[in-house]
């Protein structure tokens, strides 16, 4: 065959290829005859190439001639390959794409050449990947063609195809190749030259708006008060991302220098509970992508996952294989606080660089929320510890008496305290508070409360206890003073020492209200304490009531203080009632007066003789 004859045969082949493309378009649901005809034309193309190779061998062996012949052969190959009306992919022995024709790019929705250098089995349905590799190995070893049906998924498109594999030898390639012809059997192919839908201006605008909407939703979610009060920030963020952005969302947080799996969300429409448990149980320190993100503190995106071992392994193999991963993005949480990994399947559009940018911002927001939550909870635990140090959890039973108390912390860490404790041959009680707010004031109050309790174990007079606590407080040099009252109960006799505290109230069975003396100078002002000492008798049915500055100074919406007169009126109405009912009545009346607002700590303590 002469070269003109060969070129004429090639033109005829191109014409028949055009006819096949038109037949495929005209009869999209009847592809079997088109496939048969296409394979016949492929055989014709192989014969033409063999004829061309024979002619080139017979040509004069001049250097220029060999070069020209090889170029003409390659030109012929490329023309046939590009003009072929069905998807054809040339693979090497490992299944890596080496050549891809335009029809394949149109079917899969990817740019020309995008898949070159990537592993073709990653496009194959997970359940059929092992079978594909077996067919590929068989074709390479035996030289016999093979065919099987599977699903291909890429760029959000899914096609059920009949794949035919044929071994071939490529000029200039040292190893044998395999040609894969993939003819869709269910999905109609897009028209040649059609624009990819994700590239349309409208789709790009919608995608940008969706990214902005994610940032807004995430910000609202993480700034909610409950995200600070409870450890819910990570769980909320993963649920939001799984609902709108990915099939799988995995959050790994760094604790004690090691990444630990914190949350895993899988597809809700699939029975993946067992797989979720496998992902939860896997060690993030065995994940290449997580370690890379934690080390470099910058995100990575794989529009097409080309290494299924990136996320680590389960007992059944690579996790990404079991998850059906098509694309992946992994971003840092905060500044080295962890890593956030999102995975999409083959049947969804892949993650892009624009997605990486917005998800890195999400990771930054989540990191800030996690740190704020940790800081808030640390301070909350400290506040709880301080509060526990200024108020007993339970009041002990005092023989011959009934006791009850209410304690409301204010808008900051509490500085008021109260206590009931055993003393030699009786019981002691104390109530008071440092002048100030915050942790320092609370720590000073806790110190005074502890001092009163400890010293009462050796002293028989509450006034001596108050004076020694005053000496210790002055010696500490805190600069704070404390208003306090302490008393010892022995039988029906009650001896009290007051250091600048409000006077106690004695409620009598007939409703009479009598205030004790109170007074004195607060602790911590002078090395020589100036206290007010008083001895009372609490008969059966009488109730001694002690209260904090926060109760008396509570104000209503007109700025009027609650005051001791209103307290006396409320107590008078509680004559004959148990201590628990008395403190509750005072609490309810104060709430009514102040509209439920509490600024300073409120303590009400009642001790009734029985």
From TrEMBL:
The record's InterPro entries line, in alphabetical order, gives:
Bact_Sigma-Reg (IPR052016), GAF (IPR003018), GAF-like_dom_sf (IPR029016), PAS (IPR000014), PAS-like_dom_sf (IPR035965), PAS_4 (IPR013656), PPM-type-like_dom_sf (IPR036457), PPM-type_phosphatase-like_dom (IPR001932)
Every copy of the PAS domain together lies at 73-143
Which superkingdom is the protein from?
Answer: Bacteria
**Keyword entries, A-Z:** Hydrolase
Q: What is this protein called?
A: SpoIIE family protein phosphatase
